[in-house]
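Sharing in case it's useful to others searching the archive later.

Someone asked me privately for the predicted structure of chorismate mutase, so I'm posting the question and my answer publicly. Question first, with the sequence:
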Amino acid sequence: MVRGIRGAITIDSNTENEIVEASKELVQVLISTNNIDPKSVAQVLFTVTEDVTAAFPAKVLREFDGWSYVPVVCAQEIPVPGSLPLCIRVLMTVNTDVAQEEIAHAYLREATKLRPDLTLTND
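And my answer, the predicted structure tokens:
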């Protein structure tokens, strides 16, 4: 069965280091809390708000063992007035037998405001 695993995180400033470190944190949380095997991942889509431009969040997946062949892409969110700034979102499409309501989504830092009902931790 195919499931979507979602997450989001914010950064303090639009720098390559902030984007890379936050993206790693987000991906690591999703992998560890959902016990994701990269061989079960069909694709990963990262989106960023229009103020995140210093680096591609998707490139961090290449630093994780076994993720080299997972298709991954980045895109920009539509610039809705009043939306959460400096935000990186991810959607992993995964083949799993885990029930939809048992998937652990991760909304970290200020992104907890997006889906407080799906928040793992409140930093």
